[in-house]
Amino acid sequence: MAPRPGLSRDLIVRTAADLLDEADGWEVTLSQIAAALGVRTPSLYNHIDGQDDLRRGLAVFAVRELGARIARAAIGRTGEDAILAIGHAYRLFAHEHPRLYQASLRAPDPDHQALIDASEEILDVLRLVLEPYQLSPEDQIHAIRGLRSLMHGFVSLELAGGFGLPVDVDESYHRLLTAFIRGLQRERDE
Known about the structure:
Helix content: over 70%
Strand content: under 5%
Order of helices and strands: HHHHHHHHH
């Protein structure tokens, strides 16, 4: 069967991402995507190799979208200012696209080059932001893992309704990021 004009892998993945944000569950089916695009489900198979391939495509799309947000937030900033901006951009993305955010979390398989490349773009931004702290390459990795963990942990608890006390959650998040930054500054100054 010949591919339908105008239909592409990118369009299918983007449509899946849009549907995912509106979905009741954590996945979108190929039949839902086909209905949204006004095509029959078999037409999608000219561009995508089933549900697992769609998940992989969504992961790449999600990481690229998150990476673009982080990069825009970091532009023109360094050090503390950049880390705070990145932290807030990360949190906003997770709130605006909670299901797509979930698709961005998995570490790439060694054979999934597109996801590796998208993830490396985020790492490159974070490495640049961390340069003022004069960390060794190994310490940079620890710092990046720490920053990702604190942002993800906070956002995950927040999205799950885990913060019920009547204290400003935005202030808590800001203080958490600031404490992380102070730790980096202490390491640099020692």
